[in-house]
Design brief:
Layout lengths: L3 H17 L1 H9 L7 H8 L1 H15 L4 H4 L2 H13 L15 H16 L5 H32 L9 H13 L5 E3 L2 H10 L3 E2 L10 H12 L5 H11 L3 E4 L1 H6 L10 E6 L4 E5 L7
Helix pairs in contact: 4-6, 4-7, 6-7
Length: about 280
C-alpha cells in the first residue's frame, strides 16, 4: 500500500491531465506498444523463462524456509509483471522493461535448487554451457539475418546516398531548432535524427494527430490540390522547408519548381530541398 497507492494516484492524475490535453491525448492514443503473443514471449526468453517458472514454483513451495522466503518479493515481481504484460492497454510492452531482472534471478534459483541437483556434475556443466550459448547467440542470429536481408534487398531506406548526405549537411547549416520540414513519412522520420529540425510527419507514435498529418502530406504532393489549399497548408503547419525525393514523388506529381513560393536550396539528381517563402497576406 505504501508503494502502490501513492504511485497509482500519481499515475492516475498524470493520465487524467494528459487526456485533457489534445496533443498528449493524441500521443497516448497512437503509442501502440503491444506485447508479443505468449508463444513469442516464451521463444524470446527460451530456457531462461522455463527455469524462471521452475524457480518461482520452488520459491512458493518453500516459502516458509528462510532461503525461499527472502525470494518471495522476486517471485511476486515476476508474477505481477507477467500479468501486466497482457493488461488490455496499448502500452503493454512497456511493462516488460526490467522484467528480465526477476526472470534471471528466478532462473538461477530454478537451476541451482531444482535442475542441477538432479544431474551429474559433468552433465550439469555441459547443459548450462549449452543454455548459455543458446541464450547469447539467438539474438545475434536474428540481428545478422535482419542485416543480411536488408543488404540483399533494393530497399532505398536501408541507407542514404552521398547526395542525401550533402543535402543533410546543407539543411543542417540552413535550419534552426524551431524550423519545420515537410516530407514523406520515412524521410520525415529521419531528418530530426540528423538535423536540428522538426518534422511535420515522422515517428508514428510521436507525431501528434499522425493520420491527419499523413493526409496533409499526401494532399500537398497531389498535383490536383489547388494552390490556395497547398499554401494554406504550409502556413497552417508552419512549414519552413520542403523535401522532395523518390518517396515524395510517389505521393503525387506536384512540381515544386513550378511555383514561386518554394525557393530551391539544394538541387540534386534525386533529392531536392526547398525553402518556403510565402507571399505576404496583403498580396
Amino acid at each position: 500500500a505504501v508503494i502502490f497507492v501513492p504511485a497509482g494516484l500519481l499515475a492516475g492524475t498524470l493520465t487524467l491531465l494528459s487526456r485533457r490535453d489534445p496533443l498528449l491525448a493524441s500521443w497516448l492514443d497512437q503509442g501502440d506498444t503491444y506485447s508479443p503473443p505468449p508463444w513469442f514471449l516464451f521463444s524470446l526468453y527460451g530456457p531462461v523463462l522455463a527455469l524462471a517458472v521452475i524457480g518461482a514454483a520452488w520459491t512458493v513451495r518453500r516459502r516458509t524456509e528462510p532461503s525461499a522466503g527472502s525470494l518471495a518479493p522476486v517471485a511476486l515481481w515476476f508474477v505481477v509483471v507477467l500479468g501486466l504484460i497482457y493488461v488490455p492497454v496499448n502500452f503493454q510492452r512497456r511493462f516488460m522493461e526490467g522484467w528480465h531482472i526477476p526472470v534471471t534471478m528466478l532462473a538461477a534459483v530454478g537451476w541451482h535448487r531444482t535442475i542441477a541437483p538432479r544431474l551429474r556434475p559433468g552433465v550439469a556443466r555441459r547443459l548450462l554451457l549449452v543454455i548459455g550459448i543458446s541464450v547469447t547467440l539467438s539474438p545475434l542470429f536474428v540481428l545478422t539475418d535482419a542485416l543480411v536481408r536488408a543488404l540483399q534487398t533494393d530497399n532505398r531506406h536501408t541507407y542514404i546516398t552521398a547526395e542525401e548526405y550533402d543535402l543533410l549537411d546543407r539543411l543542417d547549416a540552413e535550419a534552426g531548432l524551431d524550423d519545420v520540414i515537410l516530407a514523406a513519412f520515412d524521410n520525415g522520420n529521419r531528418f530530426p535524427a540528423r538535423v536540428g529540425i522538426r518534422s511535420v510527419l515522422g515517428h508514428w507514435s510521436l507525431t501528434a494527430f499522425a493520420d491527419d498529418r499523413q493526409d496533409d502530406v499526401e494532399r500537398f504532393f497531389d498535383a490536383a490540390t489547388p494552390e490556395s489549399e497547398r499554401i494554406a497548408l504550409l502556413d497552417r503547419l508552419g512549414v519552413d522547408f520542403v523535401y522532395v525525393g523518390e518517396d515524395e514523388r510517389e505521393l503525387g506529381d506536384f512540381a515544386p519548381e513550378s511555383v514561386d513560393y518554394l525557393v530551391p536550396v539544394f538541387v540534386g539528381r534525386e533529392a531536392r530541398l526547398y525553402r518556403v517563402a510565402l507571399r505576404p497576406a496583403s498580396e
